[in-house]
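Ticket opened by: R.M.
Priority: normal
Category: complex prediction / small molecule

The reporter submitted a protein together with KG4 and asked that the result be attached to this ticket for the collaborator who will pick it up next week. Submitted input follows.
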Amino acid sequence: MTDSRDEPLVLGIETSCDETGVGIVRGTTLLADAVASSVDEHARFGGVVPEVASRAHLEAMVPTIDRALKDAGVSARDLDGIAVTAGPGLAGALLVGVSAAKAYAYALGKPLYGVNHLASHICVDQLEHGALPEPTMALLVSGGHSSLLLSSDITSDVRPMGATIDDAAGEAFDKIARVLNLGFPGGPVIDRYAREGDPGAIAFPRGLTGPRDPAYDFSFSGLKTAVARWIEAKRAAGEEVPVRDVAASFQEAVVDVLTRKAVRACKDEGVDHLMIGGGVAANSRLRALAQERCEAAGIRLRVPRPKLCTDNGAMVAALGAEMVARNRPASSWDLPADSSLPVTEPHVPGHRHDHDHVHEISKENLYS
Ligand code: KG4
Ligand code: ZN
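Result attached by the on-call engineer:
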């Protein structure tokens, strides 16, 4: 067995949306997971306001890094690398994280690893269930994304099998919660109400499940409209809206399609491991139905605990540590924040730089 001290000690910074996350891992061991969220500041707008998020990241960044180092009981000097979400996400929010990561990496003389937010959502499961099997099918469901991805190496090979053609699954949860006046974010509260409702009460449509529809793509916009119309009709008739039944029936329509398509993709590709990640993976019904359907199909299901499913810095550190372990080149100092970084690029490479090189560049940049 390898000595765990030989495994890379990496700090990860996540600022793609409204969570300022700083995590520290040693290999696949989680040491710290500090998160400062600005979600309350967005609640009254019913969605994330980019400028508000960027400002909150700026204020939270240094204290959150300090907290993570303290929680992990390590010194910044001992780090083997600093990883940061380079994209996709909100441009201004990403910039805060990327700038901070560069500043720390540069000042400490550590390699910088710009990584993909989506690949990080998959890689985080290593902290919970150990090394990812290769290949792994991943169902990634969050406020901004809903995709089925096949990965044979999370640092270099992520292949999109399908994705949403309109709304993301989490976005649908957020919108329906708004129509029901349940607040923001919608996922957790719908999940709660749905537990007391009947998932079979209302037959809402299952998007893109016809025989001619693309097998692995998703659509939630039609469902969203159908649910909103159903609620409006009730209200127009002066009837009370059965919130729990609507929540349960809507949620069932979403998770039915997600799990059905994910299991089908595994079967078609001969992959016997399914990983579910992203904020919506915190959904209790999605977890239960996925477990049931995977068991029936002989597929091993891996879902991290809810706190690791929503945005956090530990997932970025996990992918960064994997980059170090697999000798991937560090990113260059001109690493950009790329709001539409493709899912097929788990890591944003650049020139390899070592400590001496850092100083060379610094002289050039400072005096030229
Ligand atoms: O991954 P994440 O934290 O941020 C993005 O990258 O988008 O995901 C946030 C999304 C929100 O849309 C939120 O409503 C949804 O995840 N979510 C849930 C649950 N918890 C969070 N959706 C359904 N059920 C939940 N329990
Ligand atoms: Zn996310």
